[in-house]
Amino acid sequence: MKELVRVEDLQKTFTMHHDQEKQIVGCNGISFDLHDGEFIGITGKSGAGKSTILKSIYHTYTPSGGKIIYRSEQFGPIDLVTATDRQILAVRKKEIGYVSQFLNVMPRVTALEVVMDAIIEMGGKAEEASVEARQILAHFRLPASLWDSFPRTFSGGEKLRLNLAQAMVKKPKLLLLDEPTASLDNASKQSVKEMILQLKSNGTSMIGIFHDLDFMETVVDRQYNLSQGLLMDKVGS
């Protein structure tokens, strides 16, 4: 398998400007690689820095140091730490997806439109997007009665299912999953598992952070544990 992402000595430090410029270390010295169609799971206590790693790759956070070499279809190998805003926006649009427990969408856009827009953004036509969006919303067990509603009224679990549908319908090269099963019932978790395995079989690479270890072990290829700033490979341990 070809290498898709190589993280080298990733560092992220936050400066607390309201607290005498105090420095808070989000993560430090993080290194690993990810190959085509591979899924890496990261575990660790709350506050260990797991989300910081994902947000640094997605460039929600600007890393303080290190490298994140990503093999882009549009640009070839690029360092996501030093990439331009134009490059970051382009790879987010076409290549890299991100799922979190929190939904960030326009306030007057329905759930169906959220997913349709994701498909159209990838070059799909409106009529095809409508059919595909309905299929994936049904797959993630979002009730049809909510499809024409505004997501701001949804429960936490409903927002997460919509987030999953919006990201996964694009079939990205790289998918970052931040607690993808939080607040989901067992039936919805099975829907997530089925979609993850389908994406993997089609070549999508994934990095996920989990508290649900039983679920994680059914989908990942390698596991790491983040503790005291160190990322330890759990394979063979």
UniProtKB/TrEMBL annotation:
Molecular function via GO: lyase activity
PROSITE patterns: ABC_TRANSPORTER_2 (PS50893)
ABC transporter domain segment(s): 5-235
InterPro entries the record matches: AAA+_ATPase, ABC_transporter-like_ATP-bd, CP_lyase_PhnL, P-loop_NTPase
Key words, A-Z: ATP-binding, Lyase, Nucleotide-binding
Keyword DNA-binding assigned: no
Pfam family, one: ABC_tran
PANTHER family: ALPHA-D-RIBOSE 1-METHYLPHOSPHONATE 5-TRIPHOSPHATE SYNTHASE SUBUNIT PHNL, LIPOPROTEIN-RELEASING SYSTEM ATP-BINDING PROTEIN LOLD
Family: Belongs to the ABC transporter superfamily.
Name the record gives this protein: Phosphonate C-P lyase system protein PhnL
Species name: Metabacillus herbersteinensis
